[in-house]
Amino acid sequence: MRDILDGLIQAFELIFSLNSALYEIIWLSLSVTGVALLLSATIGVPCGALMGLKRFWGRSVILLFIYTGMGFPPVVVGLFVYLLLSRSGPLGMLGWLFTPPAMIVAQTIIAIPVITGFTIAAVMGVDSNLRQQLLALGATPWQATLAILTEARMGVIVAIIAGFGAIISEVGAVMLVGGNIEGQTRTLTTAIVLETRKGYFDLAIALGIILLLLTFLANLLMTQWQGQDIN
User: Could you tell me the pTM of the whole model?
Assistant: First the structure.
């Protein structure tokens, strides 16, 4: 209990001390996660809408891969991206290994199945007759799809928030492809692991509290941006 109280006090001391190293870690964590979330939502939401609305040959197999991806171990994703971006890998010429772009790639791959899967569930939860009614009234297929996404917006918001939660708290993949390099690729999660290994539990708890606060604020802003009230 004492460690938790000390960690809470130290968390607020760190936040208000304007420590440049801490804010570099916070900025890197949010920027990497933000770009990965934008990319994965751009891919996942349309794909989820398509999978939820259309019936085609091979759909069940694709759904199986998506749902498997939702529970895929992130560290395996990190290993795949590592091999892909290593010097001997097919994309080694990019020189992205142990840089923020590699972390973005790993987090994007982790978040896409999560966002896609939840979007599929949200779209399939909308009245199946709505699309036919809209098309019969003269709406284009694109307009009908947007209307269904609007109807399923709460589920889509949940999908994006779930994707955000999956990657902001990720450790294994980020550490593998980023290397946890101080001042370059160290995020809040990897810093927590490092400080815990060093035995600095107060600092690790403080960083954990900061991560929880940032996650709460990001989710709050995301929900309010969608025009929804939190009660």
Answer: 0.85
